[in-house]
Every structure is written in structure tokens, then in C-alpha cells.
Design brief:
- By secondary structure, this protein is an alpha/beta fold.
- It has nine helices and seven strands.
- It has a seven-stranded parallel sheet with strand order 3-2-1-4-5-6-7, sandwiched between helices.
- α5 links the parallel β5 and β6.
- The protein is globular, with a radius of gyration of 17 Å.
- It starts with 6 loop residues before the first strand and ends with a helix.
């Protein structure tokens, strides 16, 4: 897939799926902006990618003021955005009885409010015919114990994306959802025990967790002209997790 001279924004691009996708877009010729809350992590990502086509913006997706920083950085370049990948996300897994207001708000602020207002703020900067991608999750459909808040954020995100696909169709902007299953990212490593990760791998038809590069390929497909008639759709990239787990 060729994205030569296309302009791509990836939120949450310092690690995991975001970093892998940023690399893939740059390898396909795109100019890429990545965001992250931590300047140190952005520096590490910059060093790892090591490309003049990479631009970094320190911005916390959960804060509207930081979203405005991203908007300003894009506006100052004067180039329309061809691909917006709304990927930043956090997760806390615990039973309902243990959920605190702080954890609830943190997940909804990053996973839902952040994506909603990033899309809103960048709408004037999207090229007609652009592609918008949301990172959701299989948890939006599954009913995993301990994932009530995280699952709720992803369910909300899916509905926002579906409505955005209808609202933006007049500008030929396609909006789609990528829902990974268990993927070997730093987020998964930090959130789950070794035993839990082994159980997740065993719950997929392919008997393994995915890797970020596999999800990145799915994102690039949906952003490409090869998916020109696909919008308002959720692509599940989960190694058969949902179907296998529901047998």
C-alpha cells in the first residue's frame, strides 16, 4: 500500500499498536504525527523510528487543552490530514465493586471523550475523502469479568464511530473501527498477570496473542484505497478470540 506524501495523525503513538502503525505508515511513504502524554516516551519513539517524516506532539488525549495543542501543530503545517487514527487508550481491570470514580473517569476521559473531541477539533483539517480509524476492542462485544468500565468505553466508542461515518459521508470521509483481541503490547503486559495472558492466548482459535504489526496492517488496509467502499464497519482482528471463546 502506497501512502506517499499522505499526512497521518496517530494518537497514542509511542508504544504498542500506535507505534507499530506509525512505523508502517512511514514505511509506506507517509508523513506522520504521533502524540503521547510523556515527552520521554515520544523521544524514545522518535529514536526508534528515526525518520524525518515523523513529527511528535506532547498531548494528553484526555485533556481538551492538549487536543488544542495537537490541532495547532497540524494547522501550522497547513497540510490537510489524510488519515486520522484515534488510538490512545488506557484500561483498568477490576470487579465492579472495586471501581473508583477516578479510574472510571480516567478511562472514559481518554478512551471516549478524548477521541470524540480530537475528531471534532480536527474535522476542519481533514481532507475530503480522508480516512478516520478508531481503535476499539473485542471487549465491546464480549462480557469479560473485571472489564466493565473498559468495555463500556469501547462500546461507546463504536457508536460514536458509526454515527461519524454517516455524518461525514457527505465529505467522502470514511470512518471505521479496528477491534483487536489480545495483542502483545506494553498495556497488556502491565495490566495482566502472566497466568491471565496465558489464558487469553489459549482462548483464541489460533492459540496465541497477536502482535502490534498485525493490527497495523489492518489499519493501513482500512485507510487505503483498497477499502474505498468500506465505512461504518468494525473489523475484528482477534485470532478468532470471540468465536472461539463463545463456542
Amino acid at each position: 500500500m502506497d501512502f506517499t506524501n499522505k499526512n497521518v495523525v496517530v494518537t497514542g503513538g509511542t508504544t504498542g499498536i500506535g507505534l507499530a502503525t506509525a512505523k508502517a505508515f512511514i514505511n509506506a511513504g507517509a508523513n506522520v504525527w504521533i502524540t503521547g502524554r510523556n515527552a520521554g516516551n515520544l523521544q524514545k519513539a522518535n529514536a526508534e523510528i528515526n525518520s524525518p517524516k515523523l513529527n511528535t506532539v506532547v498531548a494528553d488525549t484526555s485533556k481538551l487543552a492538549d487536543i488544542s495543542i495537537l490541532e495547532k501543530a497540524i494547522a501550522e503545517r497547513g497540510n490537510k490530514v489524510d488519515v486520522l487514527f484515534l488510538n490512545a487508550g488506557i484500561a483498568t481491570f477490576e470487579p465492579i465493586e472495586n471501581v473508583t470514580e477516578a479510574n472510571f473517569d480516567a478511562q472514559f476521559n481518554t478512551n471516549v471523550k478524548g477521541h470524540f473531541f480530537t475528531l471534532q477539533k480536527l474535522l476542519p483539517h481533514l481532507a475530503d475523502g480522508a480516512a478516520v480509524l478508531f481503535t476499539s476492542s473485542t471487549v465491546a462485544t464480549a462480557a469479560n469479568v473485571g472489564a466493565s468500565v473498559y468495555s463500556a468505553t469501547k462500546g461507546a466508542l463504536n457508536k460514536i464511530a458509526q454515527i461519524a461515518a454517516n455524518e461525514l459521508a457527505g465529505r467522502k470521509i470514511r470512518v471505521n473501527i479496528v477491534s483487536p483481541g489480545p495483542v502483545a503490547t506494553p498495556g497488556l503486559e502491565n495490566a495482566l498477570t502472566a497466568e491471565a495472558k496465558e489464558l487469553l492466548a489459549g482462548a483464541t482459535a489460533l492459540q496465541r496473542v497477536g502482535n502490534p504489526d498485525e493490527i497495523a496492517k489492518t489499519v493501513l488496509f482500512l485507510a487505503s484505497d483498497a477499502a474505498s467502499f468500506i465505512t461504518g464497519t468494525e473489523i475484528v482482528a482477534d485470532g478468532g478470540y470471540l468465536n472461539y471463546a463463545l463456542k
